[in-house]
Amino acid sequence: MAHRQHDHHGRPHPHGHGQRATDTDWSQLASMLETQAELSAPVYERIMAWLAQEAPRPGLIVDVGSGPGVVSCLFAEAFRGARVLAVDGSEPLLERARARAARQGLADRLDTLAGELPGVLDELPYPADLLWAGRSLHHLADQRAALAAFAARLAPGGTLALLEGGLPSRFLPRDIGIGRPGLQARLDAVQEEWFTRMRAELPGSVAETEDWPALLASAGLRRTGTRSFLLDLPAPVCDQARAHIAGSLGRLRDVVADSLDADDCVTLDRLLDPSDPASVHRRADVFVLSAHTVYTAVRPVVEAP
Fold first, then answer.
1. Contact at 8 Å (CB) between 292 and 166?
2. pTM, whole model, 2 decimals?
3. CB of 34 within 8 A of CB of 68?
4. What percent of the chain has pLDDT over 70?
5. 50 contacts 227 by C-beta, under 8 angstroms
6. Rounded to an integer, what distance in angstroms lies between the CA atom of residue 301 and that of residue 148?
7. How deeply is 259 buried, as exposed, middle or buried, from its count of CB atoms within 10 A (0-12, 13-18, 19+)?
């Protein structure tokens, strides 16, 4: 399980025709996951500065659903006195996390743990002072039970930070000069349907109202805060951001032919055609704008009777 991306659920873009929404090989998306997290690094750095006010000197930080370790390494940079444990179900992604840590001189403070969540957390060497779940919870069938498992792995006084929700990413103006205005809003609707299918197809899926503060409280934690952080990369964007936009829309285009009208499919094809002056590869008005919402809660030092 990896840090997921792109919209207010943080869900990945859908994949090919005829596949179940849960049939995602995250290791094949490693480069995409790294690029997205690297682009969002300024947001994660602001999030960590905020978390440092609540957990100023954590001994152990656990990154639940770490993916290729971009955010894990940012935690190691931000909290110099902490050990960071990157936990994910994909060993190939964790290999990339270890390689990144080595390149950045962080290998002595970053470890990895491979296994399925939340059960693999039973293997933590000791309780976590800060447990980060960055857009990974919604990939677990029973989110309430998973949060309870996360909370149980916290040290007394430890903080659980949950990144879920936020706002859909925007890459384009409402009217882009080709096709019918409002394309991205219609793509949002497609993704909402995909996300609903993804959740329903998880084995043992449990429907849950996405009231994250209430769910944190149900896990026995004391809510401490909610804050949203804006990722604002205005036009003209760098080449890395432009490639990210093209890749994101391209992966979505793989499945929208059956979900959008023909005119919108034609518009997407033009946006993805590098030879078209109206494509995201060439147009000057593409940008990246999204909001990341983080919820924090603390395990009480004295457990309630």
1. yes
2. 0.90
3. yes
4. 90
5. yes
6. 16
7. middle
